[in-house]
Fold this protein.
Amino acid sequence: MDWIDVVFILSGLLCLGSACTIVTRKNPVYSVIFMLPFFLGMTILFILLSAPFLAAMQMMVYGGAILVVFLFVIMLINLRPEEIKDDFSLWTYTPAAAVGGVLGGLILSFVRHGIPDGSELDKNFHAAVNNSRLMLDLGMGGVAPPLGSIDSIAIPMFKQYVVPFELVSILIVVAVLGAVILAKKRV
Amino acid sequence: MDVTGMPILADAGLMDFVAGLFSFKLVSCLALSAAIFSIGAMGVLARRNVLVMLISVEVMLNAVMLAFVSFARAMVNLGPPAGKTFAAEGGQIFALFIIAVAAAEAAVGLAIVIAYFRNRQTVDTRDIKAMRN
């Protein structure tokens, strides 16, 4: 067992444990607090998967913006602890756990039956991770930037994926305007 | 054996498959992603607090991002497809798009929660039944 396996298992357990904590706490403040170790584990996984820029974005946007917005709304709503209704009932948890288990088992069996053993997808997955300077041929001549660096993400984003990129900006404008209109006081 | 004639993971037996999940491979990343996704789906289905349901949706989106990034990482070993510019970063770029969509979804969802709470003083779906019957 290599050190990278140990880091992978530890961060995966961190993600799984904090995800379980998120969905089972009665008080939503604890759910939001436990989003932080969840995002931390996700960040470690992204760094292991040679996506350092994405890891930085995850920490800044999720841990910095989305989590604070959730916390802000919970503080704004300001339910007292005795006003929070008890969420736990076997009538809701049992079918939800059954559906979640069936869904996870289904995806797992797709993974198990759909990916060839020792195929090229799997080959060198581990060895190439240790070699952090992954070179990619982007068809531009010269030395290609390593996978996951800002260069290697920015160049395809503004060449091949420029239309979805612009659509995302339109989506964010629409979402911000919609949020303002929805949450604004009626005058 | 699948249609391509290559041995698939199911041939190895269940115990070997499970034992193989405890090392850093594509399959184990996808299995972790599936587990986190189903935990998030369970949260959306079981909880009655709208805020926790929105947080569970974020958990599900994170699981999808993990799957995208691990496929992008595995694509490196495949080499460029015939006649195409190779860009394994596609998965990472789509994960960035997922972050943007998740931010927009959180903004709109929380705005709806605030607007509803201002009118009805509740965030519990058992009390949200204005359109029932």
Summary: Chain B touches chain A through 89 residues (CB under 8 Å). Helices of chain B lie at 14-20, 26-46, 50-75, 90-120. Chain B has a mean pLDDT of 82. The CA atoms of residues 9 and 17 of chain B lie 7 Å apart.
